[in-house]
Structure formats: C-alpha cells, structure tokens
Amino acid sequence: MPRRNVLRSQARQMVHDVLTFMKNEAQEGLQFDLKAVQKRTAAATGISERTVRRIAVVANVPGASMHEVFRTPGKKRAGKKKVTAISSSNLGVIKRCIHNFHNTEKELPTVKLLLRKLKQEVNFQGQDSSMRRILNDLGFKWKKTEDNRKVLIEHANIRQKRIEYLQAITKYRAEGRPAVFVDASYVDTTRTTEGTAKGSKKGERVMIVHAASDAGFLPNALLMFKAGTKSDDNKNYDKWLRTQLIPNLPENAVVVVSKAPYFNKSEDAAPTSTSKRFIMESWLLEKGIPYYSTMLKPQLYKLICTYKCGFKQYKIDGILNENNHPVMRLPPYHPDLNPLEMVWAALKDYVAGKTARSVEAAKQLVHQKIIEINDEVSVLCKKTKSTEEEYSQSDVVIDTLTDEITIHVSDNESDDETDEDSGSEDEPNDDSSSDEEVTSKEAEFMEVNISPEAILS
Question: How confident is the model over 391-442, as pLDDT tens digits?
Fold first, then answer.
C-alpha cells in the first residue's frame, strides 16, 4: 500500500478553510461568480488574490516543474558549494600565477583574463565569484581604471612587506648565511580522507614543529606533542627552542619564522583598549611618549596604537639574536615563500589516509613521512629561492604597469586597509601576534618628537 503524504499544520488549516467555504456555499449559495476563479480560490483558501495570481503565473511558465511552483519563498537552502576551501600550498600557486601573468603578459590581469589563465594552468574549478573571494583572501583588490576597466591590484602594504623581506633575505644569502625555515602545524587523529572518523574523540591534535633548509630537515629538530592548554604548549615550544633548535642550527644561520602565535609572542605587550588607565599611562611614561592628564582612555589608546610598533619586541628574537641568529618573518599572504607549507599538506594527507585513531599512532605516521620526504624538502627549499627571484622581477614589472594607467580611488577608501594573514590555515593567530603596520606617523616619530595634539588631530 503506497505511503500516505502527511499534511503539515498549514496545509491542514487550508483544507479546513476550503471545506468551510464549500459548506457555506452549499447552504447560502455562491458567494462569487463561478468564472471569478482566482477570487474564489483566495476566499476558499484564506490567502490573498495577489498570492493566487503569483502562483498561477509561475505554474503557467512552459517547462516549470511542480517543485518550482510550490517552492517555499525565502527559505534558506544549501546552495552550490563555493570553491574557497583551498590549501595554503595551492593558494601560493594561484598567487604565483597572478605574478607570472605580469611577467608573461606584460599587463595587469582583468577578471576574464585571470579566470581563463587559472583554469588553463592550475585547473581552477570555480567561477568569478569564487575567484574574487580567494583573491581577497590573498590580499588583492579590484580597481577601476580611467577607461572603466577593472584590474587586479595588490594591497600596497603587502607588497611593501614582501619587498622588504626579499631584500633582506637576498642580502643574507649573498653573505653566505643559510636560511632555516621554522614553522608549526598539526595533524588531527579524527580526520580521514572522507572526513572526521565516526566514534573518534574530538580535539585530539598532534602539534608538529620542525625546521628545514637547503640541506633538508634540520637534524633532531622535530617536535611532536598532544595539544593541550596554551601555557602547556608554550612550555613545549620554549624547551624545543633552547634544546632542539638552537643547538642544531648551522653557524650564522638566519631563522625565518611563520605567523604561528608562539613565534610572534611579544616580550612586552602594549596595553589594549580594555586595559586600566594606570597601565596605559605607565606604558606611555616608560616609553617617553608625552600625553596630557586630561586625556580619556580612548585618546590614550590612540597614542599607544600610534607608537607601539616602534617598541615591539618578540620573545624568540632576543633568544636567537643572543646566539647570532637573526630572525625574519614571512610576509603576510605568501604561503608560497614557506617551503614547509607543502610539508604540512603532505603530512595531513598521509595521516588521514592511514586513519590514525590515537595520538601515538599519529606521531609514528608523521615520523615515517618526515623520513620519507627529507630529500623533497631540500628541493622545496631550493625552489623557494627561484620563487623569491620571480617575485623580485614581478615587482619591477608591476611598478611599470601601474605607472601606465590611472586608477580611481574613492575619498573614503584607503590603500592600506587590509587584514594581515600569512595565508596559513595551520595555526590560529591572536591579537598579540599580529604583525602590525608601521604608519608614516610612526616612522616620523623615530626621527622627531611629536606632540599629542599632532597625533589626535
């Protein structure tokens, strides 16, 4: 026997209204002319004539299915999957594709040109809407030119940080100082190739810290531990830095770190907007920054924000500098300048494919894969050098191309408005570890003393 359709409360109410309407007509006669079909339908069902007409129009569309006619308006439904879940390594490929566009095509990319190139070279599966979201995540923005074209422009402060980084690492390489890349990530014991394994405990993550250079992985520098509280994790990192990283670094090596929170912990963090007044004033006095006693907390905090980057010191920088190892930080939105990004992707896929159900099993799998890909890591680190050179060449071309066009910027738009992010999905960042901008006012402060009025104006 076929299964009966269950009517919901709204449909049951409508059946009752139609039944009542017909009973009344049977007793009292027709309320409306039989030819006034829509008016009779509205009166019988208790809905407006306008709604009846709208449903009738949709139903009369050639080829319209009953599913479309009776589709509930305004209901939230799962839409098409957006192509935004892209790994950091693939984001780096897309970013390089954009910069290579400058070198090969000798012009700034437009929406259509870039989408066509990405589909050809990296098999990009999304459409322009997905591409725009990804490009925004990479620190790009679309700008309109004087001839009403839209061209892709990278945020100025992102370019500035990349240029400064490339100049510094090129200088160190020329001096014969090896670059050692240091990064942290994790593998999830509940993750499989199909998703989260059923019946597994949530939150079992194995934290991984490692270092690599042109010679491959740094010997004895692998750290793995079960993720715990922030304070416990920091103790593991501190011990690793002093007992595993520093003793095994090559002489005069330069340490390049990612934006993982531990590597960017401030030694003396500046007060926040919620700090007590006396803490704000103490910080300003200690740094020799003038302020008025009549200033309110938002005004004090504005002074702090203006100057704090000039005083920012990172905890690991002091430790490594004592051992003659200068520290560099990867520019934001540049996962392709970090060879360890590819390592993390390989480790996660490997562990997920083996379905590790415990922390110890995940550690063993990570260790196996680390040994297996040591030679590949050496190649990746050497490939990073060529990527650095490509960016340096591209930046020269970008300067030339942007000089040839006029880009409109609205009055309420800033060139420097962007959230910084390294493009890595491995480690969450926090406010204390954000790599903040040094504004023109901060640069000026380093040369002359500025009055509070100048900052607040």
Answer: 888 888 888 877 777 665 554 455 444 444 444 444 444 444 343 333 333 3
Burial 16-26 (b: 16+ CB within 10 A, else e): eeeeebeeeee
Which of 24-33, 100-109, 322-331 has the highest average model confidence (pLDDT)?
322-331
Distance CA 159, CA 332 (A): 9
**pLDDT at 256 (0 to 100):** 95
Question: Do residues 289 and 282 make contact, with C-beta atoms less than 8 angstroms apart?
Answer: no
Neighbours of 371 (CB within 10 A): 10
In a shared domain, residues 228 and 299: no
Question: Taking Cα atoms as reference points, which of 169, 161, 447 lies closest to residue 331?
Answer: 161
Global pTM? 0.67
DSSP state of 303: H
163 lies in some domain: no
Average pLDDT over residues 254-283: 90
- Determine the Cα–Cα distance for residues 27 and 25; give it in Å rounded to an integer: 5
Q: Which two tokens stand for residue 291?
A: 């302020």
CB-count exposure of residue 132 (10 Å: 0-12, 13-18, 19+): middle
Same domain, yes or no: 188 and 138: no
Number of folded domains that form the chain: 4
Strand 140-144 versus strand 150-154 pairing type: antiparallel
Residue 239 forms beta bridges with which residues? Answer: none
Residue 142 belongs to domain spanning: 88-154
- pLDDT tens-digit map of 101-111: 766 777 777 77
